[in-house]
Design brief:
Elements (H helix, E strand, L loop, with lengths): L4 H4 L5 E6 L7 E7 L3 E8 L2 E5 L2 E5 L4 E4 L4 E6 L4 E8 L30 H5 L12 H15 L4 H23 L6 H14 L7 H7 L4 H12 L3 H19 L4 H7 L5 H12 L16
Antiparallel strand pairs: 1-8, 2-7, 3-6, 3-8, 4-5, 4-7
Helix pairs in contact: 3-4, 5-6, 6-7
Length: 293
């Protein structure tokens, strides 16, 4: 894994927008993928989130971080007062254009060119959605302070606010590095999601381990502990499940499907398919009649 961005060059956040307006009514945004980072501290009231299909409850006084590219439902209860910051962590030459996610933007689409690196790329570790309770007081005081400074509108104020934001994030990262334990299910889920997205590129166990922020041996041991099978078994199942779905749609030859799910050898693909499903790809009854051979 390459050295993280944050440790190999200048690291200064750039804030797109920020605010601290109270929510006089129930508020929500559904199914959004942000290209940038979102940090929120709830001064009053609760926040209700769904991040990558996992529910996360943020109590009064809690804070959370939404990383770039994840699918999130955001919401506040009536009467809450969230303080929020939208920001970049890696320089982008067109960052001032800041393409906002719109209603129904469950995929990045045209905005993918603005996607910021995630925590693994920035710091070499993952970060949970919920900022740990021991650091609640730090973020509850620090986020409103930097937002007030940024909203003064002068270049110097923006620079000071960016430095304050960097300090909060790096303090969090430092606490994790010196001994806080990252939820192992987060590591495994990140690895599996990365594999599913890159299955056609022939992704292997080393790349899954990197996505989990672990070395290969530690990752394989953790994977067996969490899933009761090896990551190699997961990759084989995922390739074949995706292949079966592609074949069921029709219109693709067996060799094309094999390549799309990461098999460079069509014969090996046919053999693995027969072992898994009891039939060859060409004779699978789920495949539409008249499909390309």
């Amino acid at each position: 894994m390459d050295a993280p961005i944050a440790w190999t060059g200048a690291f200064t956040p750039w804030i797109h927008s920020a605010g601290d307006e109270p929510r006089p009514f129930l508020w929500s945004l559904q199914k959004r993928r942000l290209t940038h980072w979102l940090l929120v501290s709830s001064l009053d009231g609760e926040e209700q989130l769904v991040v990558d299909d996992r529910q996360v409850a943020i109590p009064r006084g809690g804070s959370y971080l939404i990383q770039p590219g994840v699918l999130a439902d955001l919401g506040s209860v009536r009467g809450s007062t969230p303080v929020w910051v939208h920001f970049d962590l890696s320089f982008h030459p067109r960052r001032s254009e800041h393409p906002q996610a719109r209603a129904g933007d469950s995929e990045l689409g045209r905005r993918s060119g603005w996607l910021q690196p995630d925590a693994l790329a920035m710091f070499g570790i993952d970060l949970p959605v919920r900022i740990p309770a021991p650091q609640d007081a730090l973020f509850r005081a620090g986020v409103p302070r930097l937002v007030r400074r940024w909203r003064q509108g002068q270049p110097a104020d923006a620079a000071v606010a960016a430095q304050q934001l960097a300090g909060l994030l790096l303090d969090w990262v430092a606490h994790i590095q010196v001994g806080a334990v990252i939820d192992p299910t987060v590591r495994i889920t990140r690895a599996e999601d990365s594999a599913r997205a890159q299955i056609g590129a022939g992704i292997g166990i080393p790349a899954m381990a990197a996505a989990a922020g672990l070395g290969r041996s530690a990752f394989c041991a953790l994977y067996r502990q969490q899933r009761a099978c090896s990551p190699g078994v997961f990759l084989r199942r995922e390739r074949l499940d995706q292949a079966a779905a592609l074949l069921a749609r029709g219109g693709l030859g067996v060799g094309e499907v094999a390549a799309l799910v990461g098999y460079s050898d069509t014969t090996a693909f046919i053999r693995a398919y027969r072992t898994a499903f009891g039939c060859t790809p060409g004779s699978d009854p789920r495949r539409p009649k008249g499909s390309i051979k």
